[in-house]
Amino acid sequence: MEENKKNSVFVKEIAYQIGPLIKSKKAVLSFKGSLLIRHPAWVVPSFHRVWPKKFSEEMVSYQALHDIFAIMQDAGERVVVMDSHDLRNHPEKVVSAWCENMGIPARLDALTWERGMPEDWHTWAEWFKRTSESTGFIPTSAKSPPPLSEKLAKIVDANRPLYHALEAHKLQL
């Protein structure tokens, strides 16, 4: 546990942005695996809404997440998978379980924060707008995902099997 406390680094990244890393199994295996997943019916329209001109199918592909998971699992490494729906609706349970599985102490005080846009978020302000306006995790509503164009629906459908394959390994609460 002490070693983890000294050497733990949390990196939150969009999977497609680390695509070159995936080509090196050694690089992937140098990390302790943890994936945060969200159903593509929510991810795809969210990306499209925030970055309509930059949006691409590659940007929202679950293939990179699936590849990272497969590399680590094939090497016998445990990959901790969290679903964002669970995290938003049961933050204390999910964070506690995640920390236990990662071998680090839970910091439940991190489940709340002060409203506002920290300086280092300004570059990506469009992604952090809702978080900056909140003081903690906001439970998901029971409503359905937004309606999709035919193009976006095809992207969601293409990623659904990869999402479900990862979802089968998510933390059980």
Automatic annotation (TrEMBL):
Tagged with keyword tRNA-binding: no
Keywords: Aminotransferase, Transferase
Signal sequence annotation: none
InterPro entries assigned to the protein according to its UniProt record, in alphabetical order: P-loop_NTPase (IPR027417), Pyrrolopyrazine_biosynth_F (IPR053226)
GO MF terms, alphabetically ordered: transaminase activity
Protein name in UniProt: Branched-chain-amino-acid aminotransferase-like protein 1
